[in-house]
Design a protein that fits this description.
heterodimer; A: 609 residues; alpha/beta; ABC transporter transmembrane region fold; 2 domains; 6-stranded mixed beta sheet; 62% helix; B: 586 residues; Rossmann fold; 12 strands
């Protein structure tokens, strides 16, 4: 368990390429972060623990009181029988008082401990999201999008469930066990000795169970996820399944995944039932221990029958809390693993903010000798120079893999160039503050994502303080106001995951409307119109042109019509600039671009002269 | 939507799911009852030990009764172990069985199950609802066993003392009912709050999956601030919920404690008057505490059954969904001759053994959606371009040809036989429609192209023709690269090329490609157009597109307008029409 503080590049290379994954915090770091989070609410935490301890203590008073009743009865054994129930009144009222105190303290203790736990969890996940969102894109891409997504969904959920369900139960049960053992010791230390006979069995059982259950639960989670993914995949593509007559294959896949889940489930059932069997053995040994201790103590006159009864009742009442604690150990184990992965990200340093950031003036873009490699020795872009006057439009043209998207990302500041530099408005991107850079340049790609929530909320991500009027204007600019107003609740319609589903064209119009709202001097569109069918592409081209009005625009173009209207066409080939110039000039020149244009326009004779 | 067939309902789903595992459930119920009886005996035996051994100091009695106690533990432990295994096994198998049934209906060739349902909704029926129905196999035996435990405890209590037994037996249910009464509104509120909290927590996942989009418009800070607000709202909702839960818990403790005091008072009185022994009192108190468990279990089993009924209803709705199309005639034998069309015409080349359909396609007066009496003859082997001025025409035509829908009117014939007379599977074997939004499945890139067939040189040719080989070259593991679900790990252009390669590799008699290259750059598109032409030479191919590069390789182009053929000619000749020219290059 001695992992390095953060799994750095040189960390544990042995275990399947973790140097690509985001960091995982070690136990010490997790504890430090938890301490830091608990500090502002220390008082509530102390109160919570005090209430839970007091609650357990009060509940333990019940057994001695019952013992007192037993003793009263035993003492009466030979005496006259008509003394009445008056002698019982004291202990019985005590029991009622205990009930009251127990109820009240349980309420206060559980409410407070949940409050502390939930608040800490909320602060932690907020910090996690804040740090995750400013992670450099290159770092995210190296880790794969799944790593971050699984942390923000699965891990936060596992930890959340543990805090919500396991923490109060666990805390109460644990305090109850400890205090019961103390109570047994107070009755007579030999009762405690009898009860402790169960401990070795329970410890061994817990160890054995955790050893096996951890991996098995993980396997079950993975298999469950695989089944879910499989079904989503099949359900989402069911028309394709039909077209290619793949039903048998897909049914086979579902069957296979279901079978795997059953197999794991059967193994878990076997493990759990054996676990409970061993715990039963522990219960028996402890109970026999307490009863034998009671027998010996009563025989030697050290304890009364009432005390022995109380001890037995104490121990019987321990069965449930012990089961709770041991059964929750598993949840605790996964929660700790999840916590390490959450803290790993939440603990990342915030963005660097240069002390004296460069401030851009205008929207001219100048790139010099730009080089970028995703893999060392294989430059995706080499020695690219680009000079774009403010307010003009450049079309980037070239085959897949020519470096268009890479150039777009570098100019947008998403990746830092391996060589050369990009300056916008005369200020190098690297010298601008992160927030300044965000205001200067925006990138819209073919990746559509509609954020879950109202349409207005989605748009306000780009400009949080925008009025409804301004949102409407932006939608109008990209030709989306018509359908947006026609939605059932207008701008308040819930869209995205779980809400109204927008078409690809509508989603991309929304992305362009966000661009209009963000209103940067420089905008880059990377195949922002490519996902739609041919009819949709045209709608989007109009929208894109409107969104670019008044900005410096860099457009990665598929449809060469976008290149016709550009002020400058840059043809990339294998990471280098092959040609650049105006559309007409390039067509006249008869080079690469002219070939492209010929293929595109379907005009093999030159009709454009 | 069409009316459901009514063959499956909520009750039948539940009943079948339980009945399939009858044997295990009966065995499991017996064993679980025996386990509960053993548990109920523990406090009774402790009382006996106190009475006969501790109170008397009799060593033999102590050893004897401790042995009995040990036997009881062995009994209860093994009863639970094997009983729980039987019912949990039934639960697991029932779960898998229901999921398969849902999948089987979803994958039925006649479709219709997915109508009006999102993939997530279908998955939730197949996973969450199936689980909730299957778990009945666990809860019915467990509930019965809990009732048995109540019975054993009742008998023991009544044997100790009739009045005390009656007090406990008659007092416990109203007590639990009262607790439920207090708890239910709290629970309901807490459920709603928890749900709100969970939804808010989902926002984080949503923001993170859109992280590139956020970064693109520099909205990282705005998104983080929004999340902080959402998380704050979720926190207050959760805190309200936990307060309610804590209140409920406190009430339960209070009620149980007060009831215990009453039992102690009455039981103590009875013991004082000599009606019961000391051990009897201890046992009664122990049994009173024990009873709470099984009684709560019975209540819980009831709640789970109600939940299962609702889930069974959702499963039944899906299983019972009306098919989108008819079954066609009898399932035609795959390799046999093509059947005769209803009008008596025969399909020329398809008669006789081993002859393969040639792919002549006839559309007569086809009406569906925006299609308004479309008639069109496509001779076998022709490469036809279809340019739709209204994209809805192209979509409607694709849906009819794919036999995803029954046309509202008119008919489609392949090699003379009516498409709707063929079994859906056979029809789709003749006419393959590669939709624009064709889905890529999880698996490797090559798996996707093969689509269940064995690899061959034909696959390679298709990969090359669609330039999917080039797409594969840029991926880390080439054509063995795993494609994430929905192809989300690929760019739009890569996705389209893989989908196209899959369609070409299938090599159907009639291939319909709907906008296959919209996300592909101009150079690659031109190469693909040549590839399609070479690969489909002599095979009927319909290109629903406005791309000039694709139209340039067709033999013939028809222009659809207002749901009918508006112009018919070659791409080159139609290019002289300024409207057409504007449409395909505009």
């Amino acid at each position: 368990m001695s992992a390095p503080a953060t799994t750095g590049p040189a960390g544990d290379r042995a275990s399947s390429g973790p140097d690509r994954l985001l960091p995982i915090a070690d136990g010490a770091r997790v504890r430090a972060v938890l301490r830091e989070l608990v500090r502002p609410r220390r008082r509530v935490a102390v109160l919570a623990v005090a209430a839970l301890v007091a609650g357990s203590a009060v509940s333990l008073l019940a057994a001695p009181l019952l013992g007192r009743i037993v003793d009263t009865v035993a003492a009466q054994g030979s005496a006259p029988r008509d003394e009445g129930t008056g002698v019982l009144l004291g202990p019985v009222l005590g029991l009622a008082g205990i009930a009251l105190g127990q109820g009240l303290l349980a309420f206060v203790g559980v409410a407070l401990i949940a409050r502390v736990g939930e608040t800490m969890l909320a602060r932690l996940r907020e910090r996690f999201v804040e740090r995750a969102l400013v992670l450099p894109l290159a770092r995210l891409e190296r880790a794969g999008s799944g790593d971050l997504t699984s942390r923000v969904t699965d891990d936060v959920k596992v930890v959340g469930t543990a805090v919500r369900q396991a923490l109060p139960q666990f805390a109460r049960a644990a305090f109850l066990i400890v205090l019961t053992l103390v109570g047994l010791a107070v009755l007579d230390w030999r009762f405690l000795l009898g009860a402790l006979l169960a401990v070795p069995i329970q410890v061994a059982t817990a160890r054995w169970f955790l050893n096996w259950s951890g991996p098995l639960y993980t396997e079950q989670r993975i298999a469950g996820g695989a089944q879910q993914q499989q079904l989503l995949d099949t359900a989402g593509g069911v028309a394709t399944v039909r077209a290619f007559r793949l039903h048998d294959e897909h049914l086979g896949r579902v069957r296979e995944r279901a079978q795997a889940l059953v197999t794991i489930g059967l193994r878990l059932v076997r493990l759990q039932t054996r676990f409970f069997g061993r715990l039963n053995a522990g219960e028996l040994v402890g109970l026999v221990g307490v009863l034998v201790a009671g027998f010996l103590l009563v025989r030697s006159g050290t304890a009364t029958i009432g005390v022995a009864s109380a001890a037995a009742l104490y121990f019987i009442n321990l069965f449930t809390p012990i089961n709770i604690v041991l059964f929750q150990l598993d949840a605790a184990q996964s929660a700790i693993a999840g916590l390490r992965r959450i803290v790993g990200v939440a603990d990342l340093p915030d963005e660097d903010r240069p002390a004296d950031p460069a401030v851009p003036a205008g929207g001219g873009v100048r790139a010099g000798d730009l080089t970028y490699s995703y893999v060392d020795g294989h430059p995706a872009l080499s020695g690219v120079d680009l000079d774009v006057a403010a307010g003009t439009r450049v079309a980037l043209v070239g085959t897949s893999g020519a470096g268009k998207s890479t150039l777009a990302k570098l100019v947008a500041g998403m990746h830092d160039p391996s060589g050369g530099s990009v300056a916008i408005g005369g200020a190098a991107l690297a010298e601008q503050s992160p927030d300044g850079r965000r205001r200067t340049v925006a990138l819209v790609t073919q990746e559509v994502h509609v954020f879950a929530g109202s349409l207005a909320d989605d748009l306000r991500l780009a400009r949080p303080d925008a009025t409804d009027e301004r949102l409407r204007d932006a939608l109008d600019t990209v030709g989306a106001l018509g359908w947006a107003s026609a939605l059932s609740d207008g701008l308040d319609t819930v869209v995205g995951d779980g809400g109204h589903t927008l078409t690809v064209v509508q989603s991309q119009q929304l992305a362009l409307a966000r661009l209009v709202l963000a209103d940067p001097p420089v905008a880059i569109l990377d195949e922002a119109t490519a996902e739609a069918g041919s009819a949709g592409a045209r709608v989007l081209e109009v929208a894109a042109a409107a969104a670019l009005r008044g900005r410096t625009g860099l457009v990665v173009a598929h449809r060469l019509t976008q290149a016709c209207d550009a002020d400058l066409v840059v043809v990339l080939d294998a990471g280098r600039v092959a040609e650049q110039g105006r559309h007409e000039d390039l067509v006249q020149a008869g080079g690469r671009y002219a070939d492209l244009w010929g293929a595109w326009s379907g005009v093999r004779r030159d009709r454009d002269g | 939507m069409d009316a459901p067939t009514g063959a499956v309902n909520r009750t039948s789903v539940l009943r079948t799911s339980v009945r399939a595992f009858r044997g295990r459930l009966i065995g499991g119920t017996v064993l679980l009852c025996s386990h509960q009886a053993g548990e109920a005996l523990v406090p009774v035996l402790v009382g006996v030990v106190i009475d006969t051994a501790i109170a008397t100091g009799d060593v033999t009695a102590l050893i004897g009764w401790l042995l009995v106690l040990a036997l009881d533990f062995v009994w209860l432990s093994y009863s639970y172990r094997f009983g729980a295994r039987l019912v949990l096994h039934a639960d697991l198998h029932a779960d898998a069985r229901l999921r398969l049934e849902v999948a089987r209906r979803l994958l039925d060739q006649r479709g219709g199950a997915e109508a009006g349902r999102l993939p997530g909704g279908i998955t939730s029926v197949a996973v969450a609802d199936a689980k909730r129905v299957a778990v009945v196999n666990f809860w019915v035996p467990t509930g019965l066993a809990a009732l048995a435990a109540v019975a054993v405890a009742a008998v023991s209590l009544l044997r100790i003392s009739v009045p005390l037994g009656l007090l406990i037996l008659l007092g416990t249910p109203p007590l639990l009912w009262l607790v439920q009464l207090v708890g239910r509104p709290l629970e309901r509120r807490s459920g709603a709050e928890q749900e709100r909290a969970a939804r808010a927590a989902g926002t984080a996942g949503d923001l993170v999956s859109g992280i590139r989009v956020l970064k693109g418009i520099g909205a990282e800070r705005a998104a983080a601030e929004r999340y902080a607000r959402t998380s704050g709202t979720a926190l207050s909702a959760t805190l309200r919920a936990t307060r309610a839960e804590a209140g409920f818990l406190g009430t339960v403790e209070l009620a149980n404690g007060l009831f215990l005091a009453v039992i102690a008072f009455v039981g103590g009185g009875l013991a004082l008057s000599g009606s019961i022994t000391v051990g009897g009192l201890v046992a009664a108190v122990g049994l009173a505490q024990f009873l709470v468990g099984p009684l709560q279990t019975t209540g819980l089993a009831g709640a789970r059954l109600a939940q299962a009924r609702a889930s069974a209803g959702r499963i039944a709705d899906l299983l019972d969904a009306a098919p989108a199309i008819g079954p066609g005639r009898e399932q035609a034998e795959p390799a046999g001759p093509v059947g005769r069309a209803a009008d008596g015409s025969t399909s020329g080349a398809a008669d006789g053994d081993g002859a393969r359909p040639v792919g002549g396609l006839g559309l007569r007066e086809l009406r569906h959606g925006t299609l308004d009496g479309l008639s069109l003859e496509i001779t076998a082997g022709q490469m036809l371009g279809v340019v739709a001025t209204d994209p809805a025409d192209a979509s409607a035509l694709a849906a009819c040809l794919a036999r995803e829908v029954e046309p509202d009117g008119g008919r489609i014939a392949v090699d003379g036989s009516a498409l709707h007379d063929l079994a859906p599977d056979v029809a789709r074997g003749r006419v393959l429609v590669a939709a624009h939004d064709s889905h890529l499945f999880t698996g490797t890139l090559l798996d996707n192209v093969l689509a269940g067939r064995a690899a061959s040189t034909h696959t390679d040719t298709a990969m090359r023709a669609a330039r999917a080989d080039q797409a594969a070259d840029t991926l880390p593991d080439g054509q063995d690269t795993e494609v994430a679900s929905r192809g989300s790990s690929l760019s739009g252009g890569q996705r389209q090329r893989v989908a196209l390669a899959r369609a070409l590799a299938a090599d159907p008699p009639v291939l319909v490609l709907h906008d296959p290259t919209t996300a592909v750059d101009a150079v690659t598109e031109a190469e693909i157009a040549a590839g399609i032409a070479a690969m489909r030479r002599g095979r009927t191919t319909v290109l629903l597109t406005t791309s000039p590069a694709l139209l340039g390789v067709t033999d013939r182009v028809v222009v659809l307008s207002s749901g009918r053929v508006h112009a018919d000619g070659t791409h080159a000749s139609l290019m002289d029409d300024p409207d057409y020219r504007a449409m395909v290059t505009g």
